[in-house]
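Lecture notes, continued. The same structure-token format from the folding unit now serves as the input rather than the output. Read the line below as a description of shape only.
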């Protein structure tokens, strides 16, 4: 004999069923409505009041069957379930083949993250939620979507899933009610599981179905695939919203509106009285038009939740509960999900095979869940819903709807599942002269998982009293390296710079600071080093000047029709006493002299000095050789007269011609004084020829001045 209770938000249904050769027979049933709001949305808020109703049902059933009832089968409401979507990834140290164990670890770690996400603040604990099940939404391998990870090769695996949990308080309050009613729990399940167990035929177990229990205040949704429920959800809208739409439109009280709603599919005209006492004759066609919009809104909410859970329309939708009888709803739901009308239907208790009898005072579709609770209890009579195990010596209570495994114990105790496998040490990443480098960490060591001292894995089945040993793996050590491990240091060269002995060697900066070869590398460091090989690189390092300041600018010009060029820079640099190409390799023992040039401009005078243009003439005067400066020049720049201090630009054409020097100017330069009184005649000659004071003197001329 099986005693089953369906403790709902509005009513409590109790029935006693007995196995017969033809199946389970209902031999007694009772339905009692709550007198006050002792329950809200499937959650017991007043344990004593709900226990009183259960005791009343128990007493009436005992009177009917003539024997005491001690054990009861119950179910937690689907609307009490909590779902959480979560993403998790595992990144390996290198690309490798993905195993089933890798995927199992990935999925369970994602479930654990989902469990923790429900405990959103410090007042909650992840263990406040019993794990029910999960459904994978998508896998990714190295950020690419893929159908199945096992056997693939990659470095990073990722999963999106939706996990379902039952708050421990729901189970605890249900147990408390049963205990206050002087009963013990024979079996506990979930309402969606109980319902699906009796309305989904065995031949449909592999189908992808949506089971929707539409009650008065909520619509509970369960998605099935492969004979198992893979996802749950609750929509906080149901039959009451439709009833209230009629009440508001016609000014009816709730009971009258409910009667009107139920009559719309069976009668053409319904007579009712509004709250003012006026008799109304309402055409069913007219009332259905009033319901069209709220029914479509309800269908849209249910349909959207189904699509969110299943990621696509299911193969069929099975509706139960009093709200499923709402006019127009089944058609609207089929249209929302783009399913043929015959793929969305209402299941009733008389559709259940192997069940004899009916529950009095209850719609046939509302009787499915209590019957399902009894049938599920019979099929799982030898399975334990609650088991106690020890994990590392600590007692863990597990609520399981199927066969409990090690993973259930780890989730129930909030044990970090992914830590069973030691994580590789963090890699050390840094840049050397702009190039990204990595030093890998060491591999982790696997942990230990035992059941009763025997090796186990996440899927190992457990039973009441088992002892589980869990030791987390050891993480690998992070990557480590020294500067000298990533920078090649060359043999220093000894040179002399501006008279001071100096070494030219590899110089390394980490995050802008000069470091030594044995300095540990910092994570995400920016390492920059130079090993001077040319004179230019040497001066950049030793003088700490930008490379741009050592770059000379060439000016091309012509001087007296001769093509010339000159380098302009900030520094005058001599290598071993000579100007050389700074990009030549440096040698041990080189002497380098660097002088800063104050002016970056170059004048015609500078060019004349650098190119050694004759700035004087040599003559012989009265037998003595003299050098006379040619201070006066005729200078043309691009055909125009300029001075000797004019700046030269690239492409200039310069003509420099010395102005003629007269005999008189030479006498003035050598400060020769002509006597004021002469005893004879003053005779001047140039190269033996008589000349005057104003005659022009050229380089090499022989001048004589005498009195005869």
């Amino acid at each position: 004999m099986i005693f089953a209770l369906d403790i709902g938000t509005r009513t409590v249904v109790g029935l006693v069923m007995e196995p017969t050769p033809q199946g389970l027979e209902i031999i007694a049933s009772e339905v009692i409505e709550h007198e006050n709001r002792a329950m809200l949305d499937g959650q017991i808020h007043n344990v004593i009041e709900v226990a009183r109703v259960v005791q009343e049902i128990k007493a009436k059933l005992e009177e009917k069957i003539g024997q005491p009832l001690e054990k009861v089968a119950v179910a937690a409401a689907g609307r009490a379930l909590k779902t959480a979507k979560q993403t998790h990834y595992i990144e390996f140290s290198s690309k490798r083949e993905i195993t089933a164990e890798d995927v199992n670890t990935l999925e369970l770690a994602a479930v654990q993250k989902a469990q923790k996400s429900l405990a959103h603040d410090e007042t909650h604990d992840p263990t406040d939620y019993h794990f029910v099940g999960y459904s994978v939404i998508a896998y990714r391998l190295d950020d690419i979507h893929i159908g199945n990870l096992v056997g693939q090769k990659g470095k990073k695996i990722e999963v999106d899933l939706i996990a379902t949990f039952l708050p421990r308080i729901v189970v605890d309050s249900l147990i408390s009610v049963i205990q206050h009613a002087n009963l013990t729990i024979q079996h506990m399940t979930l309402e969606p599981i109980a319902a699906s167990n009796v309305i989904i035929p065995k031949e449909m177990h592999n189908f992808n179905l949506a089971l929707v229990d539409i009650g008065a205040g909520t619509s509970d949704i369960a998605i099935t695939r492969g004979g198992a429920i893979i996802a749950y959800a609750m929509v906080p809208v149901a039959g009451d919203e439709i009833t209230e739409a009629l009440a508001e439109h016609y000014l009816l009280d709730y009971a009258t509106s409910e009667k009107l709603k139920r009559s719309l599919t069976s009668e053409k005209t319904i007579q009712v009285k509004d709250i003012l006492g006026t008799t109304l004759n309402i055409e069913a066609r007219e009332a259905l038009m009033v319901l069209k919009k709220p029914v479509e809104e309800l269908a849209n909410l249910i349909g959207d939740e189904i699509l969110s859970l299943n990621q696509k329309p299911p193969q069929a939708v099975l509706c139960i509960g009093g709200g499923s009888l709402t006019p127009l709803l089944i058609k609207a739901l089929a249209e929302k999900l783009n399913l043929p009308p015959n793929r969305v239907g209402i299941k009733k208790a008389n559709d259940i095979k192997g069940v004899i009898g009916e529950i009095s005072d209850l719609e046939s579709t509302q009787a499915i869940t209590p019957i399902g609770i009894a049938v599920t209890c019979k099929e799982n009579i030898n399975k334990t819903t609650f088991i106690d195990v020890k994990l590392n010596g600590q007692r863990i209570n597990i609520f399981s709807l199927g066969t409990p495994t090690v993973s259930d114990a780890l989730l129930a105790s909030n044990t970090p599942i992914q830590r069973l496998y030691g994580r590789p040490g963090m890699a050390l990443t840094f840049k050397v002269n702009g190039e990204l480098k990595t030093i890998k960490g060491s591999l982790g060591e696997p942990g230990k998982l035992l059941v009763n001292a025997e090796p186990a894995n996440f899927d190992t089945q457990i039973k009441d009293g088992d002892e589980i040993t869990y030791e987390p793996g050891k993480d690998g050590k992070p990557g480590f390296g020294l500067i000298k491990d990533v920078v090649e240091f060359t043999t220093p060269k000894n040179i002399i710079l501006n008279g001071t002995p100096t070494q030219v060697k590899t110089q390394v900066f980490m995050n802008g600071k000069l470091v030594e070869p044995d300095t540990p590398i910092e994570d995400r460091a920016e390492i920059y080093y130079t090993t001077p090989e040319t004179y230019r690189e040497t001066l950049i390092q030793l003088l700490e000047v930008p490379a741009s300041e050592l770059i000379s600018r060439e000016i091309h010009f012509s001087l007296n029709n001769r093509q010339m060029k000159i380098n302009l820079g900030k520094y005058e640099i001599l290598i071993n006493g000579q100007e050389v190409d700074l990009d030549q390799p440096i040698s041990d023992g080189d002497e380098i002299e660097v002088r800063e040039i104050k002016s970056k401009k170059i004048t015609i005078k500078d060019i004349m000095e650098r190119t050694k243009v004759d700035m004087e003439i040599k003559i012989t005067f009265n037998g003595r050789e003299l050098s006379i400066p040619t201070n006066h020049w005729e200078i043309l720049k691009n055909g125009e007269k300029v001075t000797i201090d004019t700046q030269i630009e690239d492409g200039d054409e310069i003509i420099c011609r010395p102005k003629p020097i007269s005999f008189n100017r030479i006498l003035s330069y050598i400060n020769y004084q002509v006597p004021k009184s002469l005893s004879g005649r003053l005779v001047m000659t140039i190269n033996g020829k008589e000349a005057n004071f104003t005659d022009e003197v050229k380089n090499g001329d022989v001048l004589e001045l005498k009195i005869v």
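Point for the exam: The chain is about 25% helix and 35% strand.
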